[in-house]
């Protein structure tokens, strides 16, 4: 594999890793607050459909993004209601929402556009376009780093940069602010927060809402930037991969970045059978379907606990009941 | 009481004495049909340590929860420093100057001490200034009140005593003038408890008011100025500590005369029943829990094992009871015959067959199946006993029911209903069910762990009597308890465990709590010291 190919793969790693990163950070907020959210997938899917549809109708990617966030927030609100207010089982609520999303997206898209459950293809202002960063052209001649800057860092969609900015922002919020301290506390021992006179309910709803917003951006990115429109089941398990990455990252923001980019790299590799073929020894050929399966295999390996002990937030999954 | 009323009335007059720090007037609270608090009135003088005692379920916790804003009272008034105060939530309690140290700490284990202290009391959206301020305040408090804790240590790495200090620091950091402590010494060594009392006296000297909830009458006598007694949701008396006695308090709590120390004659030790030599247990994590235990118990004597929880007592009971976890080595002999310490031949069943009965420390998990009826629990473990069999295939449930009725009668289990699930009984009555099952098998050796944990003072007397009676009938008894009072009053010999070893053996008549406390803390006594 030559350097040009590597640069190409890294560029698509970033593109493919972005929805994973957004969903992973989304899950981080919720789980750090003690609410397990297996419904990242469903929220992304709803957001992708809503943003694809609204962007197609309005011709504006921004309005599409707003619609995606709204749709995702709606699902987050239902999950919050079920798991915080009504103290239901968080896994069941999440799984149910995933099923609803899977069916509802196709139904709505088919009813509205009659194109087999997809939304019309987007172009122009209805999509987030690639942004060329300053000096990308000028610096591309610099050996080694030049192409990296021009082809990997530059030329991405605005939402990719937003996702990257969210990583340090989340770290800062989590470890340097009052909100972060309380958020981490409520996921570890909600009683400590309650007896300190802070509302457990409000904190958890805030966290779930943040999860909704970030899943909304992730879904909108899928439909209006990574691809040109919504297609049925287009999230393809990314919500679950993001959960695996979250465990891999041990619920920490910077580690979430590296973990999701690793998954993104595997997905990027799966798109380049030519590279794999060139690297395969002798007559042995690696089937493309194996490459497609790689990120999911890694997910299983991570979830099975082969990456060392990951201690989840201690109060995770348990509804808070005030008692003495 | 009359003069106290007057001071309350004239609270507004200029140089009048301070009004009560806390005054409750006619507080009532019901949960469904259960009235947890009935018309409670109490005055707590400022700058005093005020004790509240009562049996489990007497309504102490409900009352404290009302004070800390967990529950709203159905009726009644709360006055803090003479001002009527409404406390709908914990935030309001904190604002009113009330700080609470719960029995189960409300700390975030993987946060530092500083982070725990500022949680909920931050000064702004950013943490840095709050942390700096808290660091300084903590240093001041440590100096003033012997409240030393490393501000940067993670709470999960602190000892229980230090965690409790963090809870006190949390309250003081929030400018609490009234400190409520719920069963604060339950988890402490005698040394740590002494330190806590020094802290409390220091706080009192600074004018803080302290409300101490405990069931340990000795502590009430030692540290409080006044004490209020609750019984079945009512406040039955408030007395000056100096004018009362543990016996009087116990009688007020239970509503009848209670013997705090069960009378028992001298032991009459017979043949050797249990011999344990060089017993080692290493748990699954590779930590050595028992490091060479040697002990013997004779027929007709009670060997008490004292020690702070977690020093190997549980592992000792597990090995002897036949359900050791981890790697075991060493020798156990019962009535001269060696028995397997672990492995296939060491099960609860084989232990029972040779006459070892076991009243486990954790009756909710090991002693009972809470969802099963009392009669099923009575049969449990002895379900293959011949008298419980109808024929080769079926059990004789009627026989078990009849047997249970008899046991409930003899052990005064209330309510005497064999078909009630075990979880519906109070702690004391649950323990009586377990005791009835184990004691009435006339064991040669009774293993009993924490027999009166969570048990009311009236039932304690009964349970202690039964254990002594079993001894007098010629059984050997191994008693494990973290309550020194219990060890001292029941044991014929006392062995103190620390860090998986027996630090020494003492006769109850020739030792005291101080000496035992030192042994429990791992300080070996030099020969000849008192």
From TrEMBL, chain A:
It is found in: Cell membrane. InterPro entries: ABC_transp_permease (IPR001851). It comes from the Bacteria. Its main location: membrane. The keyword Membrane applies. The keyword Nuclease does not apply. One of its GO terms (molecular function) is transmembrane transporter activity. The chain crosses the membrane at residues 6-29, 50-78, 90-113, 158-175, 205-224, 230-249, 256-273, 293-312. Keywords: Cell membrane, Membrane, Sugar transport, Transmembrane, Transmembrane helix, Transport. It comes from Rhodobacter viridis. Pfam families: BPD_transp_2. It is a multi-pass membrane protein. GO terms for cellular component: plasma membrane. This is Simple sugar transport system permease protein.
UniProtKB/TrEMBL annotation, chain B:
Its main location: membrane. InterPro entries: AAA+_ATPase (IPR003593), ABC_carbohydrate_import_ATPase (IPR050107), ABC_transporter-like_ATP-bd (IPR003439), ABC_transporter-like_CS (IPR017871), P-loop_NTPase (IPR027417). One of its GO terms (cellular component) is plasma membrane. Residues 1-10 have a biased composition (Polar residues). It holds the Pfam family ABC_tran. GO terms for molecular function: ATP binding; ATP hydrolysis activity. Residues 22-257, 274-524 form the ABC transporter domain. Signal peptide: none annotated. Residues 1-20 are annotated as: Disordered. CDD domains: ABC_Carb_Monos_I, ABC_Carb_Monos_II. It is found in: Cell membrane. Keywords: ATP-binding, Cell membrane, Membrane, Nucleotide-binding, Repeat, Sugar transport, Translocase, Transport. It is a peripheral membrane protein. Belongs to the ABC transporter superfamily. PANTHER family: CARBOHYDRATE TRANSPORT ATP-BINDING PROTEIN MG119-RELATED, GUANOSINE IMPORT ATP-BINDING PROTEIN NUPO. This is Nucleoside ABC transporter ATP-binding protein. It comes from Rhodobacter viridis.
């Amino acid at each position: 594999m030559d350097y040009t190919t590597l640069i190409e793969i890294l560029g698509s790693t970033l593109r493919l890793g972005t929805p994973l990163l957004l969903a992973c950070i989304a899950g981080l907020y919720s789980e750090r607050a003690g609410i397990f959210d297996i419904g990242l997938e469903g929220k992304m899917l709803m957001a992708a459909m809503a943003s694809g549809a609204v962007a197609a109708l309005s011709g504006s990617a921004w309005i599409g993004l707003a619609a995606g966030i709204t749709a995702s927030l709606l699902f987050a609100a239902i999950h919050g209601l079920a798991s915080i207010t009504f103290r239901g089982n968080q896994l069941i609520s999440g799984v149910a929402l995933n099923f609803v999303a899977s069916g509802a997206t196709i139904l709505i898209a088919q009813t509205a556009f009659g194109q087999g459950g997809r939304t019309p293809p987007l172009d122009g202002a209805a999509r987030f376009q690639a942004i060329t960063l300053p000096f990308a052209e000028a610096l591309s001649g610099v050996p080694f780093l030049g192409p990296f800057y021009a082809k990997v860092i530059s030329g991405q969609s605005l939402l990719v940069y937003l996702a990257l900015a969210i990583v340090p922002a989340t770290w800062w919020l989590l470890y340097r602010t009052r909100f972060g301290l309380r958020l981490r506390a409520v996921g570890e021992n909600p009683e400590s927060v309650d007896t300190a006179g802070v509302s457990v309910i409000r904190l958890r709803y805030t966290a779930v809402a943040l999860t909704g917003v970030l899943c909304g951006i992730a879904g909108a990115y899928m439909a209006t930037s990574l691809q040109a429109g919504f297609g049925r089941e287009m999230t393809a398990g990314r919500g679950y991969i993001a959960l695996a990455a979250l465990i891999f990252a041990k619920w920490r923001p910077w580690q979430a970045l590296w973990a999701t980019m690793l998954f993104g790299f595997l997905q990027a590799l799966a798109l380049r059978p030519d590279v794999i073929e060139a690297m395969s020894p002798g007559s042995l050929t690696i089937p493309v379907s194996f490459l497609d399966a790689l990120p999911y295999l890694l997910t299983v390996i991570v979830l099975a606990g082969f990456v060392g002990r990951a201690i989840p937030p201690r109060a995770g999954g348990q509804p808070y009941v005030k008692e003495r | 009481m009359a003069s106290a009323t007057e001071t309350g009335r004239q609270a507004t007059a200029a140089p009048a004495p301070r009004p009560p720090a806390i005054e409750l007037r006619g507080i009532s609270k019901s949960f469904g049909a259960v009235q947890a608090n009935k018309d409670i009135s109490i005055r707590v003088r400022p700058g005093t340590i005020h004790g509240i005692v009562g049996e489990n379920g007497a309504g102490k916790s409900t009352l404290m929860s009302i004070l800390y804003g967990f529950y709203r009272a159905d009726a009644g008034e709360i006055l803090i420093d003479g001002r009527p105060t409404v406390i709908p939530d914990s935030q309001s309690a904190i604002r009113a100057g009330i700080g609470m140290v719960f029995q189960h700490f409300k700390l975030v284990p993987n946060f530092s001490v500083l982070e725990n202290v500022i949680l909920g009391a931050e000064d702004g959206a950013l943490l840095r200034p709050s942390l700096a301020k808290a660091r300084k305040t903590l240093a001041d408090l440590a100096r003033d009140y012997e409240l030393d804790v490393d501000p940067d240590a993670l709470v999960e790495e602190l000892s229980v005593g230090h965690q409790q200090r963090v809870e006190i620091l949390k309250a003081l950091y929030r400018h609490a003038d009234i400190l409520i402590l719920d069963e604060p010494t339950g988890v402490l060594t005698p040394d740590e408890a002494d330190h806590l009392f020094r802290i409390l006296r220091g706080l009192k000297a600074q004018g803080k008011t302290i409300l101490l909830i405990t069931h340990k009458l000795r502590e009430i006598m030692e540290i409080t100025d006044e004490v209020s007694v609750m019984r079945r949701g009512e406040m039955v008396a408030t007395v000056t500590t100096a004018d009362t006695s543990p016996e009087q308090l116990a009688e007020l709590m239970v509503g009848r005369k209670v013997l705090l120390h069960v009378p028992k004659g001298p032991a009459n030790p017979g043949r050797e029943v249990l011999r344990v030599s060089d017993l080692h247990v290493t748990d699954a994590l590779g930590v050595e829990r028992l490091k060479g235990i040697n002990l013997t118990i004779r027929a007709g004597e009670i060997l008490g094992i004292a020690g702070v929880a977690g020093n190997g007592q549980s592992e000792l009971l597990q090995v002897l009871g036949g359900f050791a976890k981890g790697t075991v080595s060493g020798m156990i002999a019962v009535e001269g015959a060696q028995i397997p310490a672990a492995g296939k031949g060491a099960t609860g069943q084989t232990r029972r067959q040779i006459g070892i009965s076991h009243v486990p420390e954790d009756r909710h998990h090991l002693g009972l199946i809470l969802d099963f009826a009392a009669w099923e629990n009575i049969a449990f473990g002895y379900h293959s006993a011949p008298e419980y069999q109808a024929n080769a295939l079926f059990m004789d449930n009627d026989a078990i029911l009849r047997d249970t009725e008899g046991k409930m009668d003899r052990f005064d289990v209330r309510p005497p209903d064999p078909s009630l699930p075990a979880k519906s009984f109070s702690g004391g009555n649950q323990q009586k069910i377990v005791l009835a099952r184990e004691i009435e098998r006339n064991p040669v050796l009774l293993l009993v762990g924490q027999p009166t944990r969570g048990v009311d003072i009236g039932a304690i007397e009964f349970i202690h009597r039964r254990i002594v009676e079993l001894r007098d009938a010629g059984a050997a008894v191994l008693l494990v308890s973290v309550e020194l009072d219990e060890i001292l009053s029941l044991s014929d010999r006392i062995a103190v465990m620390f860090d998986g070893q027996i630090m020494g053996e003492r006769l109850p008549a020739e030792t005291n709590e101080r000496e035992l406390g030192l042994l429990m803390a791992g300080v070996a006594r030099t020969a000849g010291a008192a």
